[in-house]
Amino acid sequence: MADLPHLDDEALAELQDVMEDDFATLIRTYLNDSKERIAGLKSAMKHRDADAFAKTAHSFKGSSINIGAPHLGDLCRQIEKVGLEERLSDAPPLLSAIDAELQQVTVALEALMARSAE
Asked: Boundaries of each HPt domain copy (predicted)?
């Protein structure tokens, strides 16, 4: 669903209220974990491990939705299905889309953190 936003402002505002001073730490942790998850997806694809691929995608989907990145979460849902159906040959274009979307989310979250720090 390409019409989903990069960030869900309401979800992020709620997280910011709940996390208070730990919000920036949460965002940095999410961004670092996301890079590791993409590396995990690429490794699982390279080793043709559909189970590890699906599990990594599932985890990435949940964290993306929880952090307020709905489009990225939807892409992860799509790639999780690829893993569950053992269609890893269909994964490369989705992985590229996830990489690109994570870059967009990273820029937006870093801008949000910069505004919050002011």
From this structure: 19-112
C-alpha distances in Å from residue 61, one per residue of 8, 54, 111, 114, 116: 15, 10, 22, 25, 25
Domain positions in the chain are 9-117
Cα torsion for 89, 73, 49, 38, to the nearest 10°?
Answer: 90
DSSP class per residue in the chain: -TTS-S--HHHHHHHHHHHGGGHHHHHHHHHHHHHHHHHHHHHHHHTT-HHHHHHHHHHHHHHHHHHT-HHHHHHHHHHHHHHHTT-GGGHHHHHHHHHHHHHHHHHHHHHHHHHHH-
CA 54, 58, 34 angle in degrees (round to 5)?
105
Q: Which fold has domain 9-117?
A: Four Helix Bundle (Hemerythrin (Met), subunit A) (1.20.120)
Cα 73 from Cα 62, distance rounded (Å): 7
